[in-house]
Amino acid sequence: MRNIKLISCILLLAVISGAVLGCGSSTVSKTFVVGSDNYTEQFIVGEMLAILVEGNMPDVKVERKLGLNGVMVLHNAITSGEVDAAVEYTGSALMQMLQMDLITDPDEAYKVVKESYLDRWSIKWLEPLGFNNTYAMAVRKDYAEANGLSKSSDLAKVAENAVLGCSMQFSERPDGYPGWKEAYGIEFKDVVPMDSGLMYSSIKNNEVDVISAFSTDARIPEFDLVLLEDDKKFFPPYYAVPMVRTDTLEEIPGLEELINKLGGTLNDAKMAELNGKVDIDGMDPHDVAKEFLQEQGLI
């Protein structure tokens, strides 16, 4: 009987010890949700955030909500807590989400946006990635030469017969066509909203005459397009910056420092090169992002 009691006590101690040791050694997995808009560059930079954390924080579970349908959908997702982080552009944040007046100085725009997001939504803007993906009106080279187009105000010469191809967002945003039309006093014969990826094939095939291009898009030289100077300085700077919810930064120690390692690693030419690997060479955005991070020694 004494032996049975002794064995029972030993077994009970073993169970209690195992439970205590188990609690001490287990790691609570934290979840980090990355969001993005639904075009090539956003898929690439979204994958950069996700892969960077996956490669350096094994105790963090990374989820992807990439390809959300538009900048406001992405904004609502991060402010509501549906996603924890994304890469946004200073100009978009300034004029669309914050609905503030144009600031042409890049450093001042970043400062205003950073302070405003932290104050309004407890979202922290981290170190800028380094490139400026601003809007630019683009035309075919032969069209520019035939009509003497070198700057945006020159479009007044052709506007009454010209068709603009642009994204749905650009057709509606204050920093898009509505604001541009007012600033330049130019109205096109027609405006055709379309998927941003279709703009380039449309202008190449002479289906539209002008498009609202992204300055870091590799298809600009590939399709022999010309960017027209924004001579009225309408478009704000669009520097790409990772933004993360402050509660997420508190929950995952070291996350801010890790993401800030991406700061300054990309310039306009490099981002255009990465976009080209997807849009022209057909690579997957995940593979492009991973290759870049490996080159930088970040994973």
Automatic annotation (TrEMBL):
Give start-end of the signal peptide. 1-21
Pfam families xrefs:
OpuAC
Give the stretches traversing the membrane.
Answer: none
Q: Does the keyword Signal apply?
A: yes
Q: Which SUPFAM superfamilies match?
A: Periplasmic binding protein-like II (SSF53850)
Provide the GO MF annotations for this entry: transmembrane transporter activity
Which key words tag this protein in UniProt? Signal
Entry's Gene Ontology cellular component terms:
ATP-binding cassette (ABC) transporter complex
Q: Which PROSITE patterns match?
A: PROKAR_LIPOPROTEIN
InterPro entries named in the record: ABC_Gly_betaine_transp_sub-bd
- Presence of keyword Signal: yes
Q: What is this protein called?
A: Substrate-binding region of ABC-type glycine betaine transport system
Q: Which organism is it from?
A: Mahella australiensis (strain DSM 15567 / CIP 107919 / 50-1 BON)
